[in-house]
Structure formats: structure tokens, C-alpha cells
Amino acid sequence: MGNSIATAGYTFVVEESKEISGEDLGLLQEKLLQLNWGVQHPASGPMRLKVWVDGDEVVKVDPDIGYVLRLLEKLVEYRTWINAIVNVERACFIDNFGTMTGYSIAAEKIAGVEVPKKADYVRTILCEGGRIVSHLIGLGSFVGVMGVHTPMQWALIAREKFLDAFEVYSGQRIATASIIPGGVRYEPTGKFIEKMITAVDFLEKEFIPRYGEVFIDNPTLKVRSEGIGVVPKEKAVELGLAGPALRASGIPSDIRKDYPYAAYGELDFKVVTKEEGDCYARYLVIWEELIESAKIIRQAIEGLPEGEWRTKFPIKVPPGEAYVNVEWARGCFGFHLISDGGTGPYRLKMRAPSFANLWAMPEIMKNVKLADVPVIFASLYMCHGDIDR
Amino acid sequence: MEAWIKAIFFPGFVFLLVVFLMIFYLERKILADVHLRTGPYYVGKWGLLQTTADVFKLLQKEFIIQRRANKLLFSLIPFVAFLMVAMLIAFIPFSEHSFIVSTSFDLLIVLALVTGMPPVFFYAGWASKSKYSFIGGLRVVNQMISGEIPLWLSALAAAVFYGTLNHLQIVQESSWLGFIILLPAFLIFVTATLIVTDRPPFDIPEAEQEIVYGFLTEFGGFNYAILVLSKLVELFALYSIAVVLFLGGFKGPVLPGILWFFIKLAGLYLFTFVVRASTPRIRMDQLLRFCWKVLTPLALLNLAFIILVKMFIS
Amino acid sequence: MLEEIREKLKSQFGLESESYDTNMLLVKCDRNQLRDLMKFLKENGFNYPHTVSVVDYTPKGEGFQANYVLENLNSKKFVMVRVSIPEEDLTVPTVSDIFPPLQPHEREAWEMFGVEFIGNPRLEVMLLPDWAEGWFPLRKSYDFKKHRKPSKEKK
User: Fold this and answer.
1) What is the CATH number of domain A72-388?
2) What pLDDT, on a 0 to 100 scale, did the predictor assign at position B297?
3) Could you tell me if residue C135 is inside a domain?
4) Where in chain A are the domains?
5) Cβ separation of A42 and B132 shorter than 8 Å?
């Protein structure tokens, strides 16, 4: 191991001295430098972006994914109809209600089960709660990639109130497993409604004014994100963007409005769209949807009907199939569910919005600066569990 | 007091170490306050000893040298960097009597030493032989050189106005009139300080979301502690210079001089921390455009203005 | 909207289509017709592809099935194109040049089911680790026990 030199107070080992030649430097001679943006990296999450840079310009980006692959689509085939929600909700733990709702609606369509109205309303409340939780983290991480950690801290405080409400409802804060085919699993008690109202109150009265004052219309934030990663309307369709990223390019695609599921048909809300299609527009879409979601929750709580919250779901479901889309926090989530008359799903294909956004990203990241890579990445609003499934 | 006692104890090393721990503690507390959390709390009264504990944790850590790294440079650079910035402290008068040395070229030496920093940090990045460190090193050179010109120009504006380079004389001659006339120079100086010491929002060389931790990526333990400390000392020294040149140094009513000095310094630090908590980092090309197209011409115009004022006053 | 498409499909391709859901049309077509059909659908406004969903019906003796889901973003209608693939010859012409977003979806279907999309420029392992290439874990015939790593014996 060479000679160890003891200097004042500490020792360190020096390897046998090897002449470092010009080739060894490598980085000085290659024209293109390949940077590994991930897997262990402050901003990437469990995925790797191979970024080839020429000086400060990004030439090519290639995502390397699969680090959180759990093969949920296969696992679902080994479960019963109701147990499968546990796998479905783990597509992305941040907003688990959206995926559970989509799967449940698909299963109900095949089985021909009608859901009580109260269950629809509770699903709406939970879905919007999940959307708020997810959007809060989205806002925090978008500003976080530019070196300011304040929004994330504020967002987590607001998120905590919602998690408290979920805990009162289902006993769990994150993986709640609360929406099942045939309704919802637990009765929405008065305590839950109370907690939910407290959370929405905190969001509307404290978080939104405080955050809006500092981090919306922030000049430095605008300098960094305006005109970066621009995706025009036609390009967005061609690249197959989904969710807030698609709406930020001016396409009003929102399943909640197009094909209302749960109780969305009876509530009043608007679809947020922006025309610019740059990173800042995507950020604003998330921000305004957050405000809309709070309003939806208030309406749904007001209109909460009396009655049963779940019906009996048959153990064996007749053969058939359904393709159901739900507007999940990060975009349109598709479920292609097939039954062969057994006690569990025969096949479930999940169409993940983050997966679509991820593979549109290399095209958007062409010829940007290295410093724009994390900004574009965060603005596309992806969830790693969702990409790999 | 003898000079060597001064150098070790009162305005010297031990005193500064305590001051730095306090500044670090203050930074964490203020940042935590903006974040709406508590910050350091458990170690010591009000968490006062938390930073000390962290420093000791760093000192215990293993000393790791990357296999491909240039061993000599890699282990030498942190000490060189620390030595260079520690020398800056010698020229700062904290009060009428507490300074280590006072020459007739104080300001010139300080500025010259600050100008010497970019190669040191660049070699820190280069010696690591890591891609991220290397990019960080290149960015440091880019950024510091473009920040130093406005720094020089605005500092020299004060020197021209007071007609001397000696810090003590500058403080003694300072007045409200001087403060108002030198206000533009002060603003330019503080901005340039943030750029030169890569504090947020100009922390481009160590942008962790892009290049992990810039030229500090491969450093660990004691080396890392000393490199970070040297950057903190650089900021402290430049802010002290700002207090001396533009804010009247240790002058002030009632309270003793040294307290006034640190109150003024704390004001500047408060500004830094609040900026850090609310302003996103800008991009390299935007920074260069800002430096060369806005800050440098402004500093030049300001210098011309000061010369004009000087002509009328004298 | 969907009625128009249904009639056009009948006159141009001679394909029968049925309604799948309130908003979706199911078209069953042959492998050879797929590319022409997709081009036709793209020209008719169904330009937003959702996914490729492959289903393994081999236990029932019906081979594989590939479902392409397309959306019309203006009228918010869906079309599902269904291609059945015999077990012996698992090939489908690619549509990744017509719908570029479907390229990674086809890649995923290839690595999970082993359906070869002829002409897809990048059929490489994406989600699975490199050493698991060719395992096709979503097939019904995939055996978990066979591929389970031997657990370490307790000392």
C-alpha cells in the first residue's frame, strides 16, 4: 500500500507515486465530457441522466432508469381484486389516491358495480388532498434545484397538515390503501372532515399568501426559468408530454373536466392553462392548480351526502376489460385492466405520465446550458416510482 | 499589548475562531427562522455549541485522497488557501487599538491577496481529478475574475475619496457626507463581495444540483473544514473592509468601538442570510453578462464621479 | 366524431370497429395494416398516443395482443387499435416513426414480453438490469421461483 506519512495529528496513505500523464487527465482532452447526473446526486433522485456537455452546453441527454423497478404490473396479477390496491398505490407514494381511484373505477366498470354517492365525494376529497400534497413537493423541489430550500420547508409544513388528516382517516400518513373497488374503505368521520378543513384553512390563509408574496413573480426566479425549455403547442403533442407540462403549453387536457369521474362532474373548477410552455409556465400551472384544488375540497366537503360509503364488491369478476384514465397529480394516468373471470386481475397496464415526460425530456434538453438541466428536470414534474413502476 | 499576543488572542486567531462559530450559528438560526423551523437546539444553551460539535465531527473524519488525485496539491491547497485569507485579518482595525499591523498600503495588500484566490481554488478543483471538481474550478476562475474588477474599482473609489490606503486613517476621516457620497460604491462593493466569495445567489461554482459540490466535491474531513473556513474568512474579511471603507468602521456613540464594528458587520451578514433564503441561484452566462455589462461600467462611472467630487472638495 | 371515424375505417380499410367505452372506439386490425391505419388515424386528429399495452393470452391459446391507445386532444375521443400476434412469430411493425412518444413504450413492451417491434431503433434493456435481458418477466410463463437468487445460507 505504499508509504504512510504521519504529519501533525493525522495520518494519510499515499499510493505509490504514479506519473499522471496527459491521457490520464482525460477530461482536458476529450471534446465531449460525459457527466453522470445521478444516481447518487443531490438533485436527481434514483435515476441516472447521462449528460454529454461541450463546455457549458448540453449536447445530448440519455436517461438511465430502472433503479426503483418493482414490477407492480406483475405483482398485481398475484393479488385479489381488493388487495391489488396496495400495489397500485405504490406507483408513486406522494399522491397515492389518484392511482387507487383509477384502478377502482376500472374494476367497477368490469364488474358493473355502482358506487354510492358518498364514496364518490370522499374519493374526490382524498384525490384533491393527494394532489395538493404532491404539488407542494413539486413547488418546493422546483425552487430547490436553484439553491433555495425555503419553499420546500414551507411546503412540508403545509403538507404535514394534510398528512395528519389522512392519518385520522386511514391510520396511515402516506401509504393509506383507503380507496377500494366498491367505494372507500373507511367512514369519513367528523374528525377527518375537521382535520381536512384545518389543513385547507392553513393552506389558503397561511401558505398561499406567504409563498405567493416571495416565490411567485420572484425576479431572479423569472430570470432563471423564463424562456428555458420552451415547448410550443404542436411540439408538446408531438413529444407526448402529459399533465401540468402539457397544460403549460396551452392544451386544456384535464380528464377531470373531459370525462368527469368520482364527483368532479358536480363541482365547479377551472382547468389551468398557460401559453408560454417554458419552465416558469409549468411552475405557475402547478401553483394555480394548488389553489384550485383547495377550492374543490371545500366544495366537496360542503356537498358531502349522507348514506353508505361502500358497496359489496364481488370476489369473482366476470371476464371483460376496461381502459380508464384519471387525472393524477402528475398527469393523465391510464389503467388498462383485464379480467378473465378470476379472483384477481389478469393483467394491468399502467400508463404513467412521468414516463411520457421523461422520454420527452432529451428533446427539450438539447442545446441548453448545464445549469438548465436540473431546472428543466424539476419543471417536468416527474416521480421516480411512477417512471419505473 | 505585544503584537504576538494580539495575533494569537484578541483580534487574532482564537478570537476569530469564536466569532466564526457565532456567525455560523447565527446563519443557521436565521435561516431556520425563515424556514419556519427551530434550527440548532439541543447542544448547549440554545444550541450554541452545535457548530462546535459539527466542527469537531469534521476533524475526526478520515482523510481520504482520491486515487487519481494529485496528492501533493490536493493536501497542500487547503492550507495555502487558509494562509492566504488569514493574512487578510491582520490588516483590519476592529477598534482603535485592536489591530495586528497597520501599514500605509493596507487596502492594496488586502485586495491583492483576494485577487490571488482564484488560482488556489482552481488548483483545488484541478488536483481532485474529478469531473465535477474540474468544472467547479473553471467556474470559480470565471466568476472571481469577473467579480474582482468591480471590487477593486469600488474599493479604490473610497481610497481616492479619503486620499489614503491606511485603514485607520480612512476610519478616522469618515463622516456622514462621505457615507452618502460613497453609497453607490458601497452597494457595488457588497455585490462584488458576494460574487467573489461565491455566496448565494452567486454560488455557481458549488451549485450542488448541477455539479455536486464544485471544487469541494472530493475533499473531506479536516481538509474540507479548512477550505470552507477559508471561504468564510474571505467573506468576513471583505465585509470588514466594507465596514471600514464605507460604514465608518468602529466609530459610533456610547458603545465601545469594537461593538459598533460587529453591529455593522452583523447587519451585512443579516442581509446575506436573507438573500440566501429567498433568491435562486443565477446562471453562469447571466452572471458574466451582469458583471461585465452592468457592474463594471457602473463601478467605472462611480470612480469617475468620486474623482469629480474630490476635485470640488479639495 | 367517433361515428365519422368508424365509417371512414369501414370504407377505407374494411375494418369493423366497436365502441369500447362511451368515449373509445376499438379497432381490431391485422399486423400488415397497422402502419397504414396509424398514419390514417394520425391524419384524422388522433395525434396524442397514450401507450402500448401488450397482453399475454398464451394460457388461453390466443397468443399475444398489442393495444395502441390514441387520443384526439381536440375532441377528447380515444381509439384503441388492437393487433393480435401469434405466439410463434412475435413481431409487429414499429409505429415509433409515426408516433415518436411510443418508442420507449415499445421498448418497454419488448423487454417485458419479448414482442419484437421491427424497425424500432432502440430495443435495449431499459427498466431491467442488464443481466436480466431476455427474461420477459411479464409473460404468464415467467416463473418467479426459477429466477429467484439462491438465498445466502445462515452462518
Assistant:
1) 1.10.645.10
2) 92
3) yes
4) 4-64, 72-388
5) no
DSSP conformation class of A171? S
- Which letter does DSSP use for residue A112 in this model? T
State the amino acid at position A57 in one-letter form. Answer: E
Tell me if C151 is assigned to some domain.
no
Residues of chain B with Cβ-Cβ distance to A147 below 8 Å are 200-201, 203, 207-209, 280-281
Nearest CA in chain A to B276: A148
Give the separation between CA A104 and CA A122, rounded to whole angstroms: 14
Cα–Cα distances in Å, from A26 out to A37, A50, B130, B133?
Answer: 19, 17, 10, 14
- Three cell numbers written together for C3: 361515428
Number of folded domains that form chain C: 1
Residue C90, in any domain of the structure: yes
ipTM of the complex: 0.86
Answer for the pair A378, A152: CB distance below 8 angstroms, yes or no.
Answer: no
What single DSSP character describes residue A187?
-
CATH of the domain at C35: 3.30.460.80
Across the interface, whether the CB atoms of A340 and C101 are under 8 A apart is answered no
Residue B189 near residue B247, CB atoms below 8 Å? no
- The values of phi and psi at residue A7, to 5°, are -115, 180
- Cβ–Cβ contacts within 10 Å for residue A96, how many? 31
Pull the grid cell for residue B171.
Answer: 476610519
* CA-to-CA dists, residue A41 to A211, B207, B209, angstroms: 27, 12, 8
C-alpha cell at C153: 445460507
- Sorted by sequence, the CB contacts under 8 Å of residue C40 that are 6+ apart come out as C8, C9, C12, C13
Stretch (H or E) spanning B307: helix B296-313
* Residue A147: per-residue pLDDT: 83
pLDDT digits (tens, 9 = 90+) for B177-221: 888 888 899 999 999 999 988 888 888 888 877 788 888 888 888
Interface probe, candidates A347, A348, A387, chain C, greatest C C-beta count within 10 A: A347
pLDDT tens string A119-173: 888 889 988 999 999 999 989 888 888 888 889 999 999 999 999 999 998 888 8
- Quick: pLDDT tens for B215-248: 888 888 888 888 888 888 888 889 988 988 888 8
Give pLDDT tens digits for A305-314: 888 888 888 8
List subunits contacting chain A, requiring 3 or more Cβ pairs under 8 Å: B, C
Phi, psi of A278 (to 5 degrees): -100, -175
Does residue C104 lie in a domain region? yes
- Residue numbers of the domain that contains C97: 2-140
- Can you read off the three cell numbers belonging to residue A127? 384525490
